[in-house]
């Protein structure tokens, strides 16, 4: 009798745990995605968490798709693609990196940086965050600079701080806005020893329309 | 008219007369008494009800009891579920904001003729209406200032609830998966 009771309790407990796992879901997606899309995204999120990858960028991507009224299949595909990029970034950066570094690394890879660029950046900035450096690399590519050239510039500045990176990007951006070609703007800033004129506050300037 | 006492006496006498019962009835009763028919067995529900009502003595080793208690706590708390409580997202956002000093960041868009402009991005869970811009005195200049902790943000403007526009004053985000381009903003923290 006692054995039966214990076995029965074990079965009930296992069912409760299994039910709990099946119901695990990201609350911010409730009401934003269809049930079918939400179930698929929740599965991807669970998998990402198990693999030690940040889930926040994945939730953000799903929410973005929902706000832009993208079809379910497109939202799920975008989240699935991003989780692969996060995994690739984490593999390139190695262990002990923050979620922000992994997310910024994933964006850099999407922009065209090579995994080896991220690995070198991490190695050269040992003990310091690579988040802003990765973000600046991505932004430089977005300005029209080829990924390998942008990566070389960012790696050349690996000893500087985040404020210097942001000032460098802002100045290249300004030069492009004034009419310089992206590569010429980058080269002139690198040749001019841009790191010496870093904005000490590290804050973005007033935003212009 | 009859005497009521006489009527009552006759009824009492009738009731006191012995009732004759046939031999067959006697045999049937004696057979039942002798155990010819077992008491009715209760069904599964009846048995379960009786089991629940009756006290039981269950002997469990301390190790099994501890394991069961731990499993129960895990099942109740469900640590693998993030933020099941309503408002958990806000709590996470608050924690993120408190963790590092927020930088007041001003967003602007020139949109003459627009009746409504909102800022939509990572920092507000891509809500299409939680961060409206204000139309300035000079017509068409919409602005809003948002405190943002250091980080990298993707965002866009939504004009009149239907037209998505990137920030012309910020780099474009390259990871556009939905055909409506975003801008990106990086706020340094070191």
Task: Write up this protein.
The complex is a heterodimer of chains A (209) and B (190). In chain A, helix 3 (56-67) runs antiparallel to helix 4 (72-93), helix 4 packs across helix 6 (115-124) and helix 7 (131-143) packs parallel to helix 9 (162-177). Chain A starts with a helix and ends in an 18-residue tail after the last helix. Chain A contains ten helices and no strands. Chain A is globular, with a radius of gyration of 22 Å. Chain A is mainly alpha-helical and 209 residues long. Chain B is α+β, with helices and mostly antiparallel strands and 190 residues long. Chain B has five helices and seven strands; from the N terminus they run H-H-H-H-H-E-E-E-E-E-E-E. In chain B, the strands form two sheets. In chain B, strands 2, 5, 6 and 7 form a four-stranded antiparallel β-sheet that branches. Chain B starts with a helix and ends with a strand. Residues 73-99 of chain B have low confidence and may be disordered. The chains are: A mainly alpha (209), B alpha+beta (190). At the A-B interface, helix 1, helix 3, helix 4, helix 5 and helix 7 of A face helix 4, strand 1, strand 5 and strand 7 of B.
Using brief descriptors, characterize the structure shown.
heterodimer, A: 209 residues, 10 helices, disordered C terminus, B: 190 residues, alpha+beta, Immunoglobulin-like, 4-stranded antiparallel sheet
CATH C-level class of the domain at 80-187 in chain B: Mainly Beta
**Residue runs with pLDDT of under 50 for 5 or more positions of chain A:** 15-23, 195-209
Share of residues in helices of chain B: 25-40%
Q: Please summarize the sheet with the most strands of chain A.
A: none
Oligomer: heterodimer
Secondary structure topology:
The complex is a heterodimer of chains A (209) and B (190).
Chain A: H1 2-23, H2 35-50, H3 56-67, H4 72-93, H5 99-111, H6 115-124, H7 131-143, H8 147-156, H9 162-177, H10 182-191
Chain B: H1 4-16, H2 23-33, H3 44-53, H4 62-77, H5 88-99, E1 103-110, E2 117-121, E3 134-135, E4 141-148, E5 151-159, E6 163-165, E7 183-187
Antiparallel strand pairs in B: 1-4, 2-5, 3-4, 5-6, 5-7
